[in-house]
Design brief:
- Helix content is about 25%, strand content about 15%.
- The chain contains five helices and 15 strands.
- Strand 1 and strand 2 form a beta hairpin.
- The protein starts with 13 loop residues before the first helix and ends in a 13-residue tail after the last helix.
């Protein structure tokens, strides 16, 4: 009995296959930027939330201790029971009590950031997800944890004398206004040959600080300095991995984005809390 004959299925020609591949490639090319935009929008919101929490922690600290913590030094200064930098002093006010407790010594009843390798503990709150320089796990090595945020030295230090043991108070230390003075800004975790270590205790550009090693209009933030491990990146300046501008937390606790087109003079005016300045129109 003869076998039934099935009609042959026509195969795809080479031209048709290339057309399909081209269409798929075009669709992927259109989809990828959209995915990147969604991811960056999510990262921006997370970064805003981190800055908001830092602002709340600073205000909670102020309400409890009656002053802001210093950029680096003892806090409260009169008791000299706790030594460290700004972000260390903020730990118990930012729901990081367990890490803060690691630095405690019952023998001396003191807290010290240099104790029990606190500086080697990564703090997710202190890291911006859009910081391209941030190493995996937030660690440079076993003793150095990075941060993506920095404190304004003109607030947390004593600018004219370059004294790191500041004690700012609200509203007395902000005659220019808390809504126009920056408390915190983004800063790259790694920049050129240095970067930002949240628990740093010496006074060099590894400090999580800006408006101290470079002052005046020259201190204006950088946007996406590339390559961040090259000369294009200045570790003395605030820096952002976001497009459009840098995110900052103001002294009133609010968070906003500052455009990359802001003038260097206006930026510096927003850094100084007591220079009797009115911010220019490019701040809005």
């Amino acid at each position: 009995m003869p076998r039934p004959v099935h009609p042959s299925r026509p195969g795809m020609t080479l031209i048709e296959l290339l057309v399909v591949i081209a269409i798929i490639g075009l669709m992927l090319g259109l989809l990828l930027p959209a995915v990147q935009k969604v991811r960056e929008a999510a990262n921006r919101l997370k970064c805003q939330n981190h800055l908001k929490q830092l602002g709340l922690a600073a205000h909670h600290c102020h309400d409890t201790m009656e002053s802001m913590p210093p950029m680096l030094g003892y806090f409260p200064h009169t008791a000299e029971r706790t030594y460290g930098g700004l972000f260390f002093h903020l730990l118990p006010f930012a729901e990081q009590h367990n890490l803060y407790a690691v630095s405690y010594s019952a023998a001396t009843d003191t807290y010290d950031v240099r104790r029990n390798n606190v500086s080697g503990r990564a703090v997710p709150l202190y890291q911006c997800p859009s910081d391209p320089s941030k190493p995996a796990g937030g660690l440079l090595d076993s003793t150095r944890a990075v941060g993506s945020y920095a404190g304004n030295f003109r607030v947390f230090g004593v600018g004219g004398a370059k004294d790191w043991q500041g004690a700012a108070r609200i509203p007395a230390s902000f005659p220019d206004g808390t809504s126009t003075t920056i408390l915190f800004a983004e800063k790259y975790a790694r920049c050129n040959t240095q970067g930002t270590l949240w628990a740093r205790v010496d006074t060099d550009p590894w400090q999580p600080a800006f408006a101290v090693f470079l002052t005046g209009p020259a201190s204006k933030f950088q946007q996406l300095p590339t390559p961040y491990m090259g000369d294009a990146c200045d570790p003395r300046r605030a820096a952002t991995g976001h497009t459009g501008g840098i995110q900052v937390c103001l002294a009133d606790g609010s968070v906003r984005s500052v455009s990359a087109t802001i003038s260097p003079e206006t930026w510096w005016s927003a850094c100084t809390p007591d220079s009797d300045e009115v911010l220019a129109g490019d701040w809005e």
